[in-house]
Specification:
Order of helices and strands: HHH
Structural class: mainly alpha
Oligomer: single chain
Number of helices: 3
Largest sheet: none
Distance between the termini: 40 Å
Length: 61
Amino acid sequence: MTDINLATRIGARVLQTRWLVRAPIWLYRAGLGFLVDSRGEGALKVTMHLVGPAPQPGHSA
């Protein structure tokens, strides 16, 4: 079994475990959301806006 296949099987198994999937909700309610927040405290939020001509009807991108 390859490492990728094993990781996929483990990931699928984790996602089928309801209490583990809902754990971040409990952490946020308990005030411990910083443990699962990937942005960190006070992190700069970056947004991108794509600017270009609007697509014309009947033309594919």
